[in-house]
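Hi team,

Filling in the usual template for the complex we talked about on Friday. All components are listed, including any nucleic acid strands or ligand strings, so the model treats them as one assembly.

SUBMITTER: L.P.
PURPOSE: interface mapping
COMPONENTS: two
RESIDUES: 653
SEQUENCES:
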Amino acid sequence: MLKMSNIHKVYKTGHVEFRALKGINIEIKDNEYVSIMGPSGSGKSTLMNIMGCLDVPSEGDYTFDDRPVRNLTPNQLAEIRNRKVGFVFQAFNLLPYATAAENVEIPLLFAGMKSKARRLRVTEVLSSVGLADKMDNKPTELSGGEMQRVAIARALANRPNLILADEPTGNLDSASGTEIIKLLDEMHAQGHTIIIITHDQSIGNHTQRIIKLKDGMVFNGNGSPA
Amino acid sequence: MRPSVIINVFLRDFRKQRKRMSLTLLAILWGTFSIMLLLAFGEGLKYQMKHGTRGLGEGIVIVWGGQTSIPFEGFGKGRHIPLVPDDIDYIRQRMPELEAVSGEYIRWGATVKFKDKVLSERINGLFPDYEQLRNFIPQMGGRFINGADIEKRRRVAFLGDRTYERLFSGGSTDASGKESQPLDPVGQTIEIGGTPFLVIGVMQHKMQGSSYQGRDEDVIAIPASTFVALFGDPYLDNIIYKPSDKGDYKGAEKRLFEVMGAKHKFHPDDESALWTWDIMEEEKEEEMIAFGIQLFLGMIGALTLIIAGVGVANIMYVSVRERTREIGIKMALGARRIYILVQFVLEALWITLFGGALGMAMAYVLTEAFRRVEIDSEAISFMGKPTVSLEIGIIVTLILGIIGFLSGLFPAMKASSVDPVQSLRYE
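RESULT (copied from the run log):
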């Protein structure tokens, strides 16, 4: 699915350089269920952004689905994000003025799907996360768990292989969190590759492999599948 | 770039942004309204000026006798060149390129009397072709001087519309006076210099932007032959001619100097031997002036619109800042940068074009209303009726399009350069 070798990421603000990632080597296979753990500032989110082709590494080689990301144009990266990656964020990141259905529709719009097909797919995917009756609700009319389920439905809309979840339960109470994890388990069972970034050791233990980050490096030797 | 994607996203998001856009829309509406009104009044003024010149006569040249400035065939300088009655036929025979040639006798201060009303007026001795050349169009029920009048030296008179008012009303010349004249002048008898004349017609009111020797509405016209018999005037006051080819009026003028020079013995290059007044020259000048005025009005209007455009750009910038997170989310979900760019440009364009359309509609309604209202004021009648022409509509639409595009482009460029990683980091 994806392979990173010697990935570095450097942020520059004025004259100050910040090295977020310092030589990451990670390989993740299709249909793996992986968690990435580490303290704040260890580079977890940066790593996820690079994995999801939202950001590009400063150094090193990243291969997504056997394609070297280095050679891809911005439009090709956008297409990968649209078709092959589903993002789930801690803060949900739903558009506040749009209904649940409209939020889920966005990636379908960018994929150029016709309106009838879009409506069908939106209904289908929202039903699969148990929100068939909340399609026309705005985010403010939904609970946190429901909002995250809308976000997961949105991430799944274009049937991407990879789901990237950045602290998906961070803003939720434990009951809702458990539900979300259960949903991700189902996705995994259906064949999706799942990568969860989390602080929660119990969630980490729930996955097949824990990659531990510290100071921008993998330190538990779990970079490659066993 | 798939147009359908952009349009779908745009339509969906725009509905959600409606509220914040309404004030900006109002600014564009006002700007468009202003430019439309200014241009419409400019157009009315242009029409009025053009019409005003036409009132005097279209494509005509008026010639007066002058004074020589070049010695010729033994004659010295400073000799008066008078216009005599047979000059008309003489020119007519030798200059076939002229469509019409006519002349005019004038006498000032003749006593004109109708019942107990006595006025001191200007009397013009005219020929029948004056009707077409100088737009002396009779009102319904009347006629102008004809060939038989000339031949038989009939004592008939054709009155300017204001002469008629002054002569036939009870002395009131105010605005309401117009309606208090039920008397049909045709068939009435007036006295000119003690001689009775039958009134045969009254001139239709016309716009007259320029005049010489009095305005046409003040005319009392009698047949030229009658005039000569009555006053014994041996000289024409002026000669009027109209070239068939409007474009070659300069050539016609040169020929006239040759023809008249041979008859009256002056040098054909002696420009002061005859005075000519070229209406066509004047028409051109007035067209230029009208164009200048309209350009000026248009520029004022365009500036108003540009200010409104700055308003649009401003609101779009604010909108970009408020929506960075939205932009980041869309990028994460697979939006290309060009989608974001086009969406913002479309929003700005839509505001300007929609606001513009409303402004245009308002301006159109107002000018139409203005056209229908009769306002009896000299100033307003000179200003003319505001006219919204197709031309104006196209020009304003183009200006709106450019302003909308530019005011959207820069915020949109900012929007499409948003770093999705940055915009998603903060919550």
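MY TAKE: Chain A touches chain B at residues 45-46, 49, 52, 54-55, 74-75, 78-79, 81-83, 87, 89-91, 93-95, 97-98, 102, 105-107, 109-112, 115, 154, 158 (CB under 8 Å). Chain A has two domains: 1-84+160-226, 96-159.

Thanks, L.
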